[in-house]
TrEMBL record:
Family: Belongs to the universal ribosomal protein uL24 family.
Gene3D superfamilies in the cross-refs: 2.30.30.30
GO terms under cellular component: ribonucleoprotein complex; ribosome
Protein name: Large ribosomal subunit protein uL24m
UniProt superkingdom: Eukaryota
Coiled-coil stretches: none
Amino acid sequence: MRLTGLLKFPRRKYAELGHLRHIPHEYIEKLKRAVPKKVYGNRFGAPPLIRWALPPDDYVPQSKPIYDSNIVNETIQREKRYHHTVLNHKFFEKRSHTVNAIPRDNWTFFPGDKVQVMVGKDKGRHGTVHTVVHETNCVYVEGLHTKLEYEEILKLHRLKEQPLFVDKNQVQLVDPIDGEPCTAEWILNSDQTEYVRISQRSGLEIPIPKSALRTTEYYTPETYIEVDDKDTPHNIVLKKTYKPKLCTFEQDIMEEQGIEDDREHKPTYWY
């Protein structure tokens, strides 16, 4: 009975939203460089020896997206310094990670949300969120909380948005009833079928903007267009074609190609 109740419980679909949700997890780990560079196995029963591109415990989330060019360049340079110290038997000081990310189930900010800045020179002004970084609990607001920075490529100064941290109350959602700042929470709707975001101040629902549905594949799911020459239809992807056999990969290929192996294999022994 308890298992049946859990299966009927509505899924928190809002926790799955994100600009990078269609990118493979392995690719994101490669951007972090927290992947094995070489694995030394077959060590006579000893556990495999892993040589990392960068140690996983050295990774520290940044306030910019993981795909930002500056972040990628800094990670590559740090990887080079790490291997230089390893080859020269020197000490490599790892970075400390002190940021506690807000759980996705409790996260209430999405791209396209109307928010109010609570700190800095733009305190009290309203703006629209255009970037969300879950790992460091920060958002970027279009045209607000900016800082003058120098562009190396363009050779000029320009204003760039700086991160506003949600866990430090530097930014808050705008209540739809009167435009005042408020906090939000997730509750089940009257039909108990899905979660909705409501203002704790007025109790009104704050709908999720369409910009939150944007990914690297499409702007909205309805506007996604499949490419016949590149995209495999879902009915073919879900079709089960694998048939397990008690043979190795080489033996399976030989059977399909009609190759017969007449060699006499020498006996093997396990100790």
